[in-house]
Amino acid sequence: TERTFSILKPDATRRNITGAVNAVIEGADLRIVGQRRIRMSRAQAETFYGVHKERPFFGELVEFMTSGPVVVQVLEGENAVARYREVMGATNPAQAAEGTIRKTFSESVGENTVHGSDSAENAAIEIAQFFQASDIVG
Ligand code: GTP
Ligand code: MG
User: Fold this and answer.
1) How far, in Å, is the centroid of ligand 2 from the Cα of 32?
2) What confidence tens digit (pLDDT) does each residue in 4-47 have?
3) Is 116 in the pocket of ligand 1 (CB under 6 A)?
4) What are the catalytic residues (predicted)?
5) What is the ipTM of this complex?
6) What is the DSSP letter of 90?
7) Any bridge partners for residue 92, and if so which?
8) Cα(108)–Cα(111) distance, rounded to whole angstroms?
9) Closest CA to 11 of 59, 56, 71, 52
10) Residue with the nearest Cα to atom 3 of ligand 1?
């Protein structure tokens, strides 16, 4: 089994659909082994999305991620990183496949409901940014 890091973004908490998203996650055989609702600070958001800091949408992205509560999660399962990316769907919901979280719930590329790590290496780094080992119970 493998672990990945997930965020239910502010558009999900604002619309009160975190349970509906979690049902899709669990339906895909991913187990939520760590979960916490937080308000991300600007510094946390800037560090987290640091790879995108030269992109034109970086400012907007940081604004959005700090605009409301988020739910940070650790998901566990077979090929969790790839499986979750599949369940999330394409970054732009207009291009996301039927049945994916972003196709079902997201309104725009900026407000696309979920984050999922793009590699096992990044998953470990991202999990460590938001979770103590003792707060993950597999
Ligand atoms: P994450 O799981 O959130 O990392 O999404 P991703 O891996 O599918 O996409 P990527 O890492 O390329 O981009 C990170 C985030 O930046 C996306 O999830 C979007 O929320 C945001 N983003 C990407 N492209 C655009 C864009 O053109 N405009 C805006 N406003 N946001 C964008
Ligand atoms: Mg990404």
Assistant:
1) 20
2) 999 999 999 999 999 999 999 999 999 999 999 999 999 999 99
3) yes
4) 115
5) 0.94
6) -
7) none
8) 5
9) 71
10) 115
